[in-house]
Specification:
single chain; 2 domains; 3-stranded antiparallel sheet; binds the ligand CNc1nc2c(CC[C@H]3O[C@@H](OC)[C@@H]4OC(C)(C)O[C@@H]43)c3nc(N)[nH]c(=O)c3cc2[nH]1; binds zinc ion
Length: 379
């Protein structure tokens, strides 16, 4: 089940509410990425305290470990990982693609060797739907091929050509139809999202969009971006594609991005975002603040008694200094990853709250101007 209502707009930007089987979420919204059924370095309670309303689970990884027998026994992912709010699962296509060489793609699906134990595996649109049905995720992503921006062949960087992007996009379209049929056969009560491909070519994005819109799915994602393409290309395709997605359905931009990307995405009409950046960068000491990013390992923080971000209300900023975080990072203490993750996720989720409030108040343009000025100030 899915219900999506738009309450306010500002240009292409929209403020909405998305009702799913496990609860209601506010949009625009950021979705923390939980790969092995956990958002690394933070508990479900910590996620709720940071204001997370929906998280991502990973079909591919959970299929391999702990395996469907374990998840099935718990009636799905929610009870297994202790998260009773909505979950979105990606279909596994991207994850297999990012495995690199050990895979073989055909019309039927993708053959590859398990990175866990070397077993020969075969992921198809139907199998991906069967796995996501066992996971019982509220939003199920279609099985697609994430068209790469470039591939390295024999040491040579090859940029994906128009005909290669077309073939890949048309394969994902055929797979979308197979996903829809299997999803119906399984009588899955959740929401199946299509994924727009088409590489860096606007006319292929339009063809993908038209083919997916004909399937009349409950939601649509923009895929094939944030895969190594120049930022200008990402923004060009985003601004071309987002406004063309069905206006009455949720729009999800996959794998994006920096705080600036989130603001540009909302302005272009995107409702949902996921990115590993806040969590992965936290563990690497790359922290986000209102006035710019900082790398806490830098010697300049050794005696700095200020919190990471004086305007942040998260537990890390309320209790600890930059000097202490600098020390924990230098010592490789596990507490560092936890405190840094809490802050970065809080920063991302607060940015979404601020954008929703600006859309509610009709002050989105002023918000964007202030956001950019603040971020340029420097920490
Ligand atoms: C980083 N840039 C980026 N990520 C993309 C994704 C995957 C998004 C998922 O991959 C992980 O992020 C690396 C996250 O962990 C899980 C939980 C698997 O979900 C997130 C995509 N997925 C599909 N199916 N199709 C796409 O065209 C696509 C494009 C992307 N661009
Ligand atoms: Zn903080």
């Amino acid at each position: 089940m899915l219900q999506f209502t738009v309450h306010h707009t500002s240009g292409q930007a929209r403020r909405g509410t998305l009702t799913l089987n496990h609860g209601v979420i506010d949009t625009p919204q950021f979705m923390p990425v939980g790969t092995y059924g956990t958002v690394k370095g933070i508990t479900p309670e910590g996620l709720k305290a940071a204001g997370a309303q929906i998280i991502l689970g990973n079909t591919f990884h959970l299929w391999l470990r702990p395996g469907l027998d374990v998840v099935r026994q718990f009636g799905g992912l929610h009870r297994f990982i202790g998260w009773d709010a909505p979950i979105l699962t990606d279909s596994g296509g991207f994850q297999v693609w990012s495995l690199g060489a050990m895979r073989k793609i055909s019309e039927e699906g993708v053959k590859f060797a398990s990175p866990v134990n070397g077993d020969k595996l075969f992921l198809t649109p139907e199998v991906s739907m069967q796995i996501q049905t066992v996971l019982n995720s509220d939003i199920v992503m279609q099985f697609d091929e994430c068209t790469p921006y470039d591939v390295t062949r024999g040491g040579q960087k090859h940029i994906t050509t128009e005909s290669e992007a077309r073939a890949s996009m048309e394969l994902s379209l055929r797979w979308a139809a197979r996903c829809k049929a299997e999803f119906a056969r399984l009588e899955n009560p959740n929401a199946l999202f299509g994924i727009v491909q088409g590489g860096m070519f606007e006319h292929l994005r339009d063809a993908s969009l038209d083919g997916l819109a004909a399937l009349d799915l409950p939601g649509y994602a923009i895929g094939g971006l944030s895969v190594g393409e120049p930022k200008d290309d990402m923004l060009r395709l985003l601004r071309h594609t987002a406004p063309r997605l069905p206006a009455n359905k949720p729009r999800y931009l996959m794998g994006v991005g920096t705080p600036e990307d989130l603001v540009a995405g909302v302005a272009a009409g995107i409702d949902l975002f996921d990115c590993v950046m806040p969590t992965r960068n936290a563990r690497n000491g790359h922290l986000f603040t209102r006035y710019g990013d900082l790398r806490i390992r830098n010697a300049r923080f050794k005696l700095d008694e200020r919190p990471l971000d004086e305007t942040c209300t998260c537990p890390t900023c309320r209790q600890f200094s930059r000097a202490y975080l600098h020390h924990l990072d230098r010592c490789g203490e596990m507490l560092f990853g936890m405190l840094a993750t809490t802050h970065n996720l809080h920063y991302y989720l607060q940015l979404m709250r601020d954008m929703r409030a600006a859309l509610d108040a009709g002050t989105f343009d002023a918000f964007v101007t202030q956001f950019r000025a603040d971020r340029a100030r420097g920490v």
